[in-house]
C-alpha cells in the first residue's frame, strides 16, 4: 500500500469551541434521550430519572481522565493516543481502541434505528417494527456518509444548526409536558409494579452512561479543535452539563405522562408516546420531527469521530488496512468501513441488544483507560489517583450489574460481546507480532512510572 493511502488529512484548528460543543451534544442527545429513555426505564423502573443523574456523575469522573491526558497531549483520535501512551504498542492498546471504535459504531446503529422507529410514528404503516425500520436506518447512515465526505466545514455548520433546533425542541417538549401535567407525577406514581431492584437500577445506569459517552467524540477530535489544550476540556464539561439539564427535564416530563408499564411498552419510541396524553397528535408530530433532527445530527457527528479514530489506528499500525482500490486517503477509507459496519448492525440487531452490546464494550474500554492512566501516566499528566480509582469502581459496579441482568435475560448478547473481545485480542496479537519496529510503529514514549 502506498504511503499516500495511509496518510490522513487532519486540519488543525478547524473546529471552534462552539462547533465542538455542538458536535459533542449532537452525539449525546441524539442517542441518549430518544434511543435510551425507554431502555433505561425497563431496568431502573420508577427510578429511571435518578439513573440518568447517576450516569452523569459516572461520566464526569470518566471525563476527568480524558481531559487530563488530552490537555497535555491533544491529538485527533485521542482515545487511541491515550491507550498508546499508557500501554505502548501492544495488543491491549489495539483491542481497547477497537472496542471503543466498535462501541461508537454500535451507537451509530442505535441512533439510526431510533431514527427509523420515530419516523414511522408519523405514518399508520404496517410493520413498524419490521423491514421499514432498518431500511430507514440504512438510509440515514448513507446520508451521514455523504455529508462527511464534504468535510469539517459542513459538519460544523450542520451540527451548530441542528444542536440549536433539537435542544430547543426537546426543552419545549419537556416544558409543555410538565406544564400540561401541572407538575404532577401521578402517572409514574400509579405504576402497578413499583418494586425496586438495586441490580436492575444499576443496569439501567450502565445503559444511561451511553447517553453521555458522546463526550469522547470531543477527545477524538483532539488537535482539530482550536486551542485544544484549553478548549477540549471546556467543551467536554459544557457538553455534559447541557446534556444533564436536557435529560433530567425530559425524564421528569415523561414521568408526568406515562406509567412505567406504558413507557416500557413503547420503549423504542418513548418520547413520542409520552407527548400523546398531554399534547395530542400535534405533540407527537412535533416530537417525531425533533427526534429526526436529533438522531440525524447525532449520527453525523459520530461518523465524523469514529472514522478519524480508525484512521489514526491505521497510521499507528495498530490495525490492518486495505483500501480495496478506493481512491483518496485513509480517512475516506475508514469512513466507508464505519458506515458499512453500522449499517449491518442496524439491520441485524434491535435497539435493546444494540444498547447492551455498546455499553459492555464501552465500559470495559473505559476501565482500561482509567487503569492505564493510573498505572503509567498519572504523574505525567498530573492526575489525582483517587479520582481515577473511583472512576474504575463506578464503571465496574454498573458493568457487573448489566452483565448479571443480561446473562439471565439475553445470554446470547453477552456471549457475542465476549467472543468479539477475545477474537479482536487474538487478531491484534497476531497482527502486531511481526510488525514491531516497522516504520510508523513506535513504542510508548512514557516511562511507565508507577
UniProtKB/TrEMBL annotation:
Annotated Pfam families: AA_permease_2
Domain of life of the organism encoding this protein: Bacteria
Mode of membrane association: Multi-pass membrane protein
Cross-referenced InterPro entries: AA/rel_permease1, APC_superfamily
Keyword Cell membrane annotated: yes
Alphabetical UniProt keywords: Cell membrane, Membrane, Transmembrane, Transmembrane helix
Spans through the membrane: 21-41, 47-67, 87-106, 131-151, 163-184, 196-215, 236-260, 280-313, 334-351, 357-374, 386-405, 411-432
Chief site of localization: membrane
Record protein name field: APC family permease
Source organism (scientific name): Hyphococcus lacteus
